[in-house]
Amino acid sequence: MEIYRSSRFHFCVSVILLLSIHHASSFYLPGVAPEDFTKGDLLKVKVNKLTSTKTQLPYSYYSIPYCSPESIVDNAENLGEVLRGDRIENSPYVFKMRVPEMCNIICRKTLDAKSTKEFKEKISDEYRVNMILDNLPLVVPTRRLDQESAIMYQHGYLVGLKGKYSGSKEEKHFIHNHLQFTVKYHKDPATDLSRIVGFEVKPFSVKHEYEGEWNEKTRLTTCDPHAKRTVSSSDSPQEVEENKEIIFTYDVEFQESDIKWASRWDTYLLMADDQIHWFSIVNSLMIVLFLSGMVAMIMLRTLYRDISKYNQLETQEEAQEETGWKLVHGDVFRPPTNSDLLCVYVGTGVQFFGMILVTMMFAVLGFLSPSNRGGLMTAMLLLWVFMGLFAGYAAARLYKMFKGAEWKKLTLKTAFMFPAIVFAIFFVLNGLIWGEKSSGAVPFGTMFALVFLWFGISVPLVFVGSYIGFKKPAIEDPVKTNKIPRQIPEQAWYMNPTFSVLIGGILPFGAVFIELFFILTSIWLNQFYYIFGFLFIVFIILVVTCAEITIVLCYFQLCSEDYLWWWRSYLTSGSSALYLFLYATFYFFTKLEITKPVSGVLYFGYMTIVSYAFFVLTGTIGFYACFWFTRLIYSSVKID
Question: Buried-most residue among 20, 92, 211, 533 (CB within 10 A)?
Fold first, then answer.
């Protein structure tokens, strides 16, 4: 339970802070309050996981034989950090505020066969070392090739590089053993106190040399603070070979900056291509306008004409000549096959919708900034658990409308079906990560915390929601249902269920696929993603698109006298998840350089979970839109 307690319930704390403190300028989120330093104060650098976009398997910093302090101390990570594979520990890198240092020797290592193999593997797989200073991640500034003035920041520095000596064809492994740190600070002229606003590094590979025997007072000839000799290039690099010694060194310089503490993340999160996001939104709005036009045409023109005509026919006693959607009024609210399963999926979709909506709102308000590491995932998990109340309520209300009686059985299915499928996939993937000895494997304590959240909080809340929902009076149908089902006439090819369902998913996916590219990039290529404003707009567009495309196709279906709309409405917008998975497959083969089979299985395993969740979310939006639409049109017509 230690890890579970350390999660600190970011979401709850954020709510309490928001409600209790009125002056937005004067409060800070837990763990991200500014820290003031005077000259000479100790700055302790922490090390985080080693990451690679080629393997997607994180490892702890000390999984390879880097220099370590006398005792390694683990930081208490929150639930989100543990699930991300973060392992934050202390390091031998200790600076003094505004005191520059040159060529500090950390340690000297002689590699054995095992250490050599480990370093070579990490260099081949392009692993990056991640560090943290005052809650800021270490970045490597690089210039964009297309824009000379634009600087991009990459997470962490590479463990090393592969290369060849001039005149040699044999490829060698070289390690980055000299780090040139730059700590940027903003100074208050009145108090002389400083706040850290940047943490950058330039890594070098240097074969350090010294004279005589090695001892604690040995001075390097390649890098000497007394002779003002610094490392400025990797012209004579340090090769990784068995029985060769490696000397690890670092420089640190301090630069005063105009950037204030509150804006220190802006440079990290600067989007160089925000025009693409605007293009994405304009593209999505075009789809919405097109669909809105169609819905408006149906509602204002076709329906108005149809309802007027049908009501007129009733008065003229010519009801036998009815055609179109009114003909199926006696069957349109007939409960579908597997109605309890539909209730379960609708309830789960409501749970997802609530979780995403509240998460987005908190993210847009700035509560889930990257400085609050793991906060986003912790908040989403806790919100998912608490939204179980709405899942049970929505499922039970629909179930009672279908004349269901076994509400406890339905509640159990709602509480267990989706989480059990996801947990089973997650458990298998976690086993694969354990097999690779990666820090990304979720420890037993965290697994216990997740099971406790599920069984201890989520399941009881689903039961409470179901009880409240089932106690309420059943939703009355606007028209009576016939005892004998009406025969459905033969449908045109374009009204075939499979065809219309597949067509229905294209437009919702089209509304989000550009933003999806950036989300996938942030997850799988370790990029910063903090454009929740754009994402919130795209989410609203997705909701509208799912609702409108389902209404349009539902109307066409009813007009062709096919009343089996319940499942069709869910699958129509839900089929966008299929396109999401196909796009994820395309992204895997075109953008990622994953080589290990285990990493490929991890990618497709996690994308299966994401696609399944997207199916449940979009399907529920489509279902409720169609449910509202059918009730509206059939309550508008006089039927005996």
Answer: 92
* pTM of the model as a whole: 0.85
Taking the CB of residue 560, how many other CB atoms lie within 10 A of it? 17
Tokens 């004579």 locate to 236
Alpha carbon of residue 78 to chain centroid: 16
Query: How far apart, in whole angstroms, are the C-alpha atoms of residue 236 and residue 239?
Result: 9
Whether 66 and 131 have beta carbons less than 8 Å apart is answered as no
Q: 3-state SS string over 537-578? A: HHHHHHHHHHHHHHHHHHHHHHHCCCCCCHHHHHHHHHCHHH
Asked whether the beta carbons of 17 and 27 are under 8 A apart, the reply is yes
Straight-line distance from the first to the last Cα atom of the chain, in angstroms, rounded to the nearest whole number = 63
Encoding tokens for residue 627? 């449910």
10 pLDDT band, cuts 50/70/90, is very low
pLDDT of residue 416: 94
| Closest of 530, 574, 640 to residue 266, by C-alpha | 530
Phi, psi dihedrals of residue 214, rounded to the nearest 5°: -80, 130
DSSP string, 296-357: HIIIIIIHHHHHHHHHHHHHTT-GGG--GGGGGTTTTTSPPTTHHHHHHHHHHHHHHHHHHH
**b (16+ CB within 10 A) / e for 188-204:** eeeeebbbbbbbbbbbb
Q: 157 pairs with which residues across the strands?
A: 129
Task: Read off the tokens for 31.
Answer: 């763990």
Amino acid at 69: P
Both tokens assigned to 538 = 């795209």
* The pLDDT of residue 475: 85
The amino acid at 151: I
Burial class, 213, CB count within 10 angstroms (exposed 0-12 / middle 13-18 / buried 19+): exposed
Is the separation of the CB atoms in 281 and 538 below 8 Å? yes
Half-sphere exposure of 536 (CA within 13 A, CB side): 14
61-64 long-range contacts, Cβ below 8 Å, gap at least 24?
61/87, 61/89, 61/91, 61/129, 61/130, 62/89, 63/118, 63/437, 63/439, 64/115, 64/118, 64/119, 64/122, 64/159
Q: Please report, as a single letter, which amino acid is at residue 396.
A: A
For residue 610, give the H/E element and its range. helix 597-635
Q: Give the Cα separation of 512 and 580 in Å (integer).
A: 9
Distance CA 36, CA 421 (A): 48
* Residues 51, 55, 59, 62, CA torsion sign: negative
Cα–Cα separations (whole angstroms), residue 146 to 270, 396, 518, 614 = 16, 57, 19, 36
Over residues 18-46, the mean pLDDT reads 64
408-437: per-residue pLDDT in tens? 999 999 999 999 999 999 999 999 999 998
Question: 154-158, 272-276, 360-364, 464-468: lowest mean pLDDT where?
Answer: 272-276
pLDDT at 29 over 80: no
> Is 637:559 a contact under the CB 8 Å cutoff?
no
Report the distance separating Cα 278 and Cα 289, nearest Å: 16
